[in-house]
Amino acid sequence: MILRLGIFGVLIVALGAVLFFAYSVVDQSKQQQAVTPPQTAQVLVAADQLQGGSLIQPADLAVTSVLANSVPVGATLDSPENRSALIGSMVRLPISKGTPILESSVIHPGDHGFLAAVLAPGMRAVTVGVDDISGANGLIWPGDSVDVLLTQTIPGAPEGKSIASEVVLQDVRVIATGQELIKSAAPTAPNAAPQPPAQTVTLEVTPNEAARCLVATNLGKLSLIVHSAEASATPSSPHALPQPVWAGEVSPALANSQPQTPQLSTVHVFQGSPDAQDYNF
């Protein structure tokens, strides 16, 4: 009897040990699953439908999470460097909203054939220098539509006509922004700190607009005026450029600072002789 009770007790203890071990294994497996979630990666995708031939702007980029072992071949991972590299790139073929932006889907500024690919038939590329103020403090992006404004000083003109501002190009597309590639040939003083290169903006223009722009760069300072996104999305029909704005129109005080000189008209009167008598009115 005592022997049977001893065997029964041993079986109970063994069964308890087996149950405890099984519970420990299951609990440990759950803890491991909770501690090590599936690895994911952040991939850049199109925030909206991107048309072929368009230039990528910051608002065109969005992020989605995918499993690390399921990242599409050629997809761009999200990072400040990769975002910067995509800005201004041309979309080769339409990209649907939420679709990863693949390397094969875009052509980057600086790539061979970029300008030839991005320019519309019959159009030209012209580059103008801008500073932080005239270039909207770096807030102009490829794909924006801008007006090019010329401000110049008129030598020898009255005060009210001494400075004029006028639109020389209207509603042209920005196709690239960046720094000038050719440094000035002017010699620099020994031990002088190197001057930062001027910022440049490359515009898509007609041959005539390119000539106007090059002439304007030698007349005065150029500034860029950005169009709204809604306006630039609608094709614009050709229309006359706005009239120049003179210094006296902006500042009445400047216009009134000069005394008004009366205009005289002279009439020559001949009375039967070669000599004429002048009458001023």
What does this structure look like?
The chain is an alpha+beta fold and 281 residues long. The chain folds into 2 domains: 80 residues, Antifreeze-like/N-acetylneuraminic acid synthase C-terminal domain (Type Iii Antifreeze Protein Isoform Hplc 12), CATH 3.90.1210; 123 residues, no CATH class. Helices cover 25% and strands 27% of the residues. It is built from 7 helices and 12 strands. Strands 5, 6, 7, 8, 9 and 10 form a 6-stranded antiparallel sheet that branches. The longest helix is centred in the N-terminal third of the chain and has 34 residues. The radius of gyration is 36 Å and the shape is elongated. About 6% of the residues have low confidence.
- Could you say how many structural domains there are in total? 2
Radius of gyration: 36 Å
Question: How far do the termini sit from each other?
Answer: 150 Å
Please tally the β strands and state the result: 12
Which shape, going by the Cα principal axes? elongated
- Please identify the structural class as seen in this structure: alpha+beta
Regarding quaternary structure, what we see is single chain
Q: Which SSEs are present, and which pair or pack?
A:
Layout: H1 2-35, E1 40-46, E2 61-67, H2 80-86, E3 90-91, E4 106-107, H3 114-118, E5 124-130, E6 145-153, E7 163-179, E8 199-205, H4 207-217, E9 221-226, H5 229-233, E10 245-246, H6 247-250, H7 252-256, E11 266-270, E12 276-280
Antiparallel strand pairs: 1-2, 3-4, 5-8, 6-7, 6-9, 7-8, 7-10, 11-12
